[in-house]
UniProtKB/TrEMBL annotation:
InterPro entries listed in its UniProt record: Cbl-dep_enz_cat, MeMalonylCoA_mutase_a/b_cat
Domain of life: Bacteria
Molecular function GO terms recorded: cobalamin binding; intramolecular transferase activity
Protein name listed in UniProt: Methylmalonyl-CoA mutase
């Protein structure tokens, strides 16, 4: 490769390309025909050229380091240990335990697992100093990287109420923990809630940053990486750019608080575009979503089983979802190149635009009282609902397509007798401090109508 073969050709400017395209359009308008607007008000052009390309921001997307994460709901300790051991033997190198009960013997759970080279995440439905201290003691003794993923603001946004604590408030609990539990990462941001509820990408990034900024302002010492739990959809290149822009802006804001640790991003496919009928298509959706997660720089990817909407956790669904990631890693070589999106004019352009628009929205949130105030005032929920309604209208009129659901559905497909889980939004009337942000899939209305006719 000592000879540059492109030297034999004269360079073509972006102006020349546009003139050629305009000629081929036979009089049709270039902008109306080929340029489209995304929900984030980003104009997408048919081509991108280096003579229109401004200097890219530096984003470190460590694709070679991404981990395959297995989600495990902990109810029965022995069964959870058995499942974790099986997952690790079959290719997982990260575990995320969901625990709803403080009485779970977490020390017993961890001590029976070979965690020397395994990253562990926890998703706790409560906040407890004593419980986290047990996790911290294990992490310190065994030098295991553990992320506790405590997110009281995310709890308020999703549930409508704070965690119940013995302390004055959830922030006091976190401050006490930051002094007592020094070997684990404590803080996380549930950014997936905003995506699954219908927020556009600029909103997802800006709300996640505002969410994180509240912790920087209220927690005295954040000495470990903050975790972002992010959901990605099938807008492939935009999702790559979204993750890059999120990491870029987080590092920019964190430096203002003298926090020099990079964030840790764990990504899962969105639930928003998943379907009950023709469920095998979900595997195609999650595959491209995992691809964009890896290229976008996810530290860990926890795939969503194709049958997660209607089946309880099961060995087959878990194995297939894990194997999707193993194929991407070991057969598609997605772990061989760091910063794989660098130099792509399109992705760099999207990253820059998403970063600029998200930063502007973040600044607007801060200028108007901050994220928590706007969450309490219902502004965040209202803005997300507006975006969700726009997307729902596109789906309902067929402009947003989910194959097998609102286009080319299989009318013979029956699902009523296969449901082990209730796959639709179910809001129980109860007293809450704020109206919670509700996750909702695009296909729910169509699916309910089909089930009623079975």
């Amino acid at each position: 490769m000592t000879t540059n073969l492109f030297d034999d050709f004269n360079p073509i400017s972006s102006k020349q390309w546009k003139q050629k395209i305009q000629f081929e359009l036979n009089g049709a308008d270039y902008n109306e025909t080929l340029v489209w607007n995304s929900p984030e008000d980003i104009q997408v052009k048919p081509f991108y050229h280096k003579d229109e390309f401004s200097k890219a921001f530096s984003v470190n997307t460590k694709a070679t380091d991404f981990r395959i994460c297995q989600n495990i709901f902990v109810y029965d300790i022995e069964k959870s240990i058995e499942r974790a051991l099986d997952s690790l033997s079959r290719g997982a190198d990260s575990l995320r335990f969901t625990i709803e009960n403080e009485s779970i013997d977490v020390t017993n759970l961890l001590e029976k697992l070979p965690l020397e080279k395994v990253t562990v995440y926890f998703h706790l439905s409560f906040i407890s100093i004593d419980f986290v201290k047990k996790i911290d003691a294990f992490a310190k003794k065994n030098n295991t990287p553990i992320f506790c993923n405590l997110d009281p603001i995310g709890q308020l946004a999703k549930d409508g109420n704070w965690f119940t604590t013995k302390e004055k408030n959830n922030f006091e609990t976190l401050n006490l923990l930051s002094a007592a539990a020094t070997s684990v990462s404590l803080i996380s941001i549930n950014a997936s809630l905003y995506q699954n509820a219908g927020a556009n990408m600029v909103q997802q990034i800006a709300y996640s940053l505002g969410h994180a900024n509240e912790y920087f302002n209220r927690i005295e010492a954040i000495n470990k990486p903050i975790v972002f739990e992010v959901a990605v959809g099938t807008n492939y290149f935009f999702e790559i750019a979204k993750l890059r822009a999120l990491r870029l802006l987080f590092n920019l804001i964190a430096k203002e608080y003298n926090h020099n640790l990079d964030c840790n991003i764990i990504v899962s496919p969105t639930k928003r575009n998943k379907t009950l009928f023709d469920y095998n298509v979900n595997m195609l959706r999650t595959t491209t979503e995992c691809m964009s997660a890896i290229i976008g720089g996810a530290d860990a990817v926890a795939n969503l089983p194709y049958d997660a909407l209607y089946h309880k956790d099961n060995e087959f669904g878990d194995r297939i979802s894990r194997n999707q990631l193993l194929i991407l890693k070991n057969e598609s070589y997605f772990d061989k190149v760091n910063n794989p999106a660098d130099g792509s004019y399109y992705i760099e352009n999207l990253t820059n635009q998403l970063a600029e628009k998200s930063l502007a929205l973040f600044k607007d949130i801060e200028a108007n009282g901050g994220f928590l105030k706007q969450l309490n005032d219902g502004i965040i929920k209202r803005k997300i609902q507006e975006s969700a309604d726009t997307a729902q209208a596109l789906f309902d009129n067929g402009k947003e397509i989910l194959l097998g659901t609102n286009k080319h559905p299989n009318k013979q497909d029956k699902m009523k007798h296969d449901l082990e889980l209730f796959p639709f939004v179910k809001v129980k009337p109860r007293k809450t401090l704020i109206t919670p942000i509700i996750e909702k899939r695009l296909a729910e209305k169509i699916e309910q109508e089909r089930l009623e006719k079975e």
